[in-house]
Design brief:
Largest sheet: 9 strands, antiparallel
Number of strands: 16
Oligomer: single chain
Radius of gyration: 19 Å
CATH architecture of the domain at 3-21 and 107-287: Sandwich
CATH class of the domain at 3-21 and 107-287: Mainly Beta
Distance between the termini: 23 Å
Shape: globular
């Protein structure tokens, strides 16, 4: 059962990170000191792409995918969802711009998923909705939840975890519509925390669910800076031992809602879509 113990708060501050686009990938330590020829005739990592044009010349990456288009391939980018995010203050190989704890080492990127294929990637499970409404194509997964709630979940393997989602959302005419990044999820969806957007009321929301009851942990109190649809959004939810952080940046401003909470000990994270079609560009899952 979800228990909220203590209060919740909301803070807004200047954010020097891009409001849209952002996760991070670990560069294997063994590749760091390997020399790069940089020529058009040498392929240092043996992936069939010469060093001169390889966006990750020390780690094999045949698809050369570059989510944030900063000329560094996802597989060796400190922060594959945030362009040019090269600072790693704590040295854990996750860039500060996408590190759940940028000043404390120990965070690990479990999965960075840019949806480059044409099927639901391994590890993800459809927990609610129709399988045919989860379509992977064109570097995204389109989730058609226009007639119901659709949810996919992923096991982060530890109760201390975070999820970072990049999503494109449409304008809506009305009705209860939402997009949520979830943490501390029970695999039957009976309990979870949610960080996301209500499209019908144009608010950022932070909720707790204990079937059948929803609790509003916090709402964005800044209607003057309400989310605008259609639009691209980055949503991050971090579950620590004693606190849950929900962050939804916009236009260089960090909208962050926090709450003191007891953890349920669940290890799943997820993406929840209600009565709208959402195009998810990437999902990053972290543990710590």
């Amino acid at each position: 059962m979800i228990a909220i113990v203590g209060g919740c708060s909301f803070s807004t501050g200047v954010d020097n990170q891009p409001a849209i686009d952002a996760p991070a990938a670990d560069a294997p330590a063994e590749a760091i000191d390997v020399p790069i020829d940089g020529s058009t005739t040498v392929d240092t990592d043996g992936d069939g792409i010469f060093d001169a044009t390889d966006n990750c010349p020390l780690i094999a990456s045949q698809n050369q995918h570059d989510e944030d288009a900063d000329q560094v391939g996802d597989i060796c980018d400190l922060c594959p969802q945030v362009a040019n995010a090269n600072t790693d203050g704590d040295g854990d190989k996750i860039g500060d711009a996408c590190d759940p704890h940028p000043e404390v080492t120990g965070d690990v990127l479990v999965r960075f998923e840019p949806f480059t294929g044409n099927t639901l990637p391994a590890g993800w499970t459809i927990a609610a909705g129709t399988a045919g409404n989860f379509v992977v194509a064109n570097d995204a997964i389109t989730i058609n939840g226009s007639a119901s709630t659709h949810v996919m979940i992923f096991d982060a393997t530890t109760q201390k975890h975070a999820i970072d989602v990049g999503v494109q959302l449409p304008a809506v005419a009305g009705g209860t519509t939402f997009f949520t990044a979830t943490t501390d999820v029970k695999d039957d969806l009976a309990e979870y925390f949610g960080c996301g957007l209500r499209l019908d009321s144009a608010i950022r929301e932070f909720i707790a669910f204990d079937d059948p009851n929803f609790t509003t942990v916090a709402n964005d109190p800044m209607p003057g800076d309400a989310p605008v649809f259609p639009g691209n959004f980055r949503i991050t939810s971090v579950l620590d031992t004693n606190a849950q952080r929900c962050t939804i940046p916009k236009a260089g401003v960090t909208h962050q809602m926090t709450a003191t909470a007891s953890t349920n000990g669940r290890t799943y994270v997820g993406v929840r879509v209600g009565n709208v079609t959402a195009q998810v560009r990437y999902v990053a899952v972290y543990r710590f």
